[in-house]
Amino acid sequence: MITVRCKKCNREIRSNSKSQSCGCPNMMTVKDDKVSAVDLSQIIMVKSTQQKKTNKLSAEDLAYQEARRQRKVRRLDFEER
Length: 81
Description:
alpha+beta; 3-stranded antiparallel β-sheet; 1 helix; elongated
């Protein structure tokens, strides 16, 4: 959840699942964690909560994926008649 303020109209918007706009000529729009505007330099991020990405794979799974990634592609040559 983020809170953003427009410098032109000084309106503060808190993110939501619905799209919200400040209504001034800068047209700052906030939806979920996305912010857009005509001029992004006229926007201040007041509050931002970032979620940490947690690794859901075990150490064995990560080792397997790393070994799999380093496998070489073997090409098969077929005889043409």
